[in-house]
Amino acid sequence: MFKLFKRKTQKEKLEAQYEKLLEVAFKLSKTNRTASDAKMAEAEALRKEIDALEK
Q1: Is residue 1 over pLDDT 70?
Q2: Cβ contacts of residue 10 below 8 Å, gap of 6+?
Q3: How far apart are CA 47 and CA 50, in angstroms?
Q4: What is the pTM of this model?
Q5: 46, 21 in Cβ contact below 8 A?
Q6: Which residues are CB-neighbours of 25 under 8 A, at least 6 positions away?
Q7: What separation, in Å, do the N-terminal and C-terminal C-alpha atoms of the chain show?
Q8: Is residue 46 a contact partner of residue 19, using CB atoms and an 8 Å limit?
Q9: pLDDT tens for each residue of 3-30
Q10: CA–CA separation, 51 vs 18, rounded Å?
Q11: Cβ contacts of 23 within 8 Å, gap of 6 or more
Q12: Which residues, including other chains, have CB under 8 Å from residue 51's CB and lie 6 or more apart?
């Protein structure tokens, strides 16, 4: 009913952070490819962590 009092799980927090990293990487890809690749690497590491939580 209300999500006001519902806490986010660790997985939900990591997924939100993952989405933010992908967004930043996309914006950087237009101006600075090296920084974009670094952000993509961070996002990929975060994705592996999320996958580990699912198991």
Answers
A1: no
A2: 53
A3: 5
A4: 0.85
A5: yes
A6: 36, 37, 39, 40, 43
A7: 29
A8: no
A9: 777 888 999 999 999 999 999 999 999 9
A10: 12
A11: none
A12: none
